[in-house]
Amino acid sequence: MKDVYLGMPSFPEAARTATKDERLRANLTRATHTIRDKRAKAVTEIEDWAELVEAGKAIKDHTLRHLDEYLLQLEAKVTEAGGQVHWARDAAEANRIVAGLVKAADGGGDQIREVVKVKSMATQEIGLNEALAAEGVAAYETDLAELIVQLGDDLPSHILVPAIHRNRTEIRDIFRANMARYGRPAPEGLTDAPADLAEAARLHLREKFLRAKVAVSGANFMIAETGTLVVLESEGNGRMCLTLPETLISVVGIEKVIPSFRDLEVFLQLLPRSSTAERMNPYTTMWTGTAAGDGPRTFHLVLLDNGRTDTLADTVGRQALRCIRCSACLNVCPVYERAGGHAYGSAYPGPIGAILSPQLRGTASEIDASLPYASSLCGACFEACPVAIDIPEVLVHLRARVADAEPGHRAERAAMQAATYAMTHPAAYRAAEAAAIKARRLLPPDRKLPLGPAKAWTETRDLPELPKQTFRQWWKENHR
């Protein structure tokens, strides 16, 4: 993943600052509770929701087990339909490919200096906007929330609603101050009414849509059976980007492939209700290669690995690759609600980011090593997930990985070695039990174990009282 996020503070440090921002917490609480409540109602309308979730999980698991076959089938079908497929091992290679394709695009005799973009998590992951800027190409976000983030020189903080940390007054101020730097300025006397803000964004973007020669997108799904790509969105900006420009470049993670159109039917029910709480999304755009006189004349598909193959090799962690980016886990997470998305230091915030980012990037950095601990393990994310990703299970799994990679304090190591010996030697275990029972008699009734520096552990936890005898002693007395 692009190092635009690396170097940020660890999650505990970032969260400590974020939780003190009262306006941020108010914005997040209002937004997440609204989406959460609407989603809960939308889901109950479908009697077989549990069966749909199980079907989505099964399709994703099957595809991941045969990912190599479906990716080759996808490549063949895209090529057959007139598209060109490129394979990118990491973020740097993906950025080089896209930058090269933009430079090679037909600009009517002029070099391409700007592209329009559909909202894309994959391009955020690799830092494509920054990479294109270094090549002298401006990338303009056309999703309303992404536009707000870009105009505010900000970072996204939510998968579905990247500007969820902003309220409408802040958005109005951002439009007034910064729209003119990127193109058409905000209208005079712009208010913070949602309709006025949407109209200002519409006018600002329209000129970009009409003059753009190149568009960059992601995709929600890729259908191996036909080589079709699918984007779901709510505003129509995606439809404009995917049909008007002459060259379309789609950067998509390899895990987004599904076998057939029949499988798509399942996800077209799961995704809208889980993300926007809609029965169906307003715009579903599909394209298969190129067609004369309809849509872009040139289509490129960049298939992105960037750590996904390594994640696939982990039998526990690979379930994170089922994710369909609905953001349901963020909207129910008490940690995300209080800390916000920026604290996660990743393009993928919230519970899914806490398990996906450390696998894609590794746990060598301070921020990635801290992410598996950015959870209370309450399980609300697992209950909300439309493809049944057991996020708490993966969090615990990744915590073990982080712990194994660190030497730990010498006192902790000694304690663990002693415990390991006792647990694997019955006689030593029985002796330790007996010693603990005897030591209990010497401890004043108002004192808790452990003593010394370790007492901080019990000052914030209620532990059960030590019994007067061990289970073995009780059994021996009562069941001779």
From TrEMBL:
Keywords: 4Fe-4S, Electron transport, Iron, Iron-sulfur, Metal-binding, Repeat, Transport. InterPro entries: 4Fe4S_Fe-S-bd, 4Fe4S_Fe_S_CS, FTHF_cligase-like_sf, Helical_ferredxn, LUD_dom, LutB/LldF, LutB_C, NagB/RpiA_transferase-like. Residues 73-290 form the LUD domain. PROSITE patterns: 4FE4S_FER_1 (PS00198). GO terms for biological process: lactate metabolic process. Residues 320-389 form the 4Fe-4S ferredoxin-type domain. It comes from the Bacteria. The keyword Repeat applies. GO terms for molecular function: 4 iron, 4 sulfur cluster binding; metal ion binding. Residues 408-478 form the Lactate utilization protein B C-terminal domain. SUPFAM superfamilies: 4Fe-4S ferredoxins, NagB/RpiA/CoA transferase-like. The keyword Hydrolase does not apply. This is Lactate utilization protein. It comes from Actinospica acidithermotolerans. The lineage of its organism: Bacteria, Bacillati, Actinomycetota, Actinomycetes, Catenulisporales.
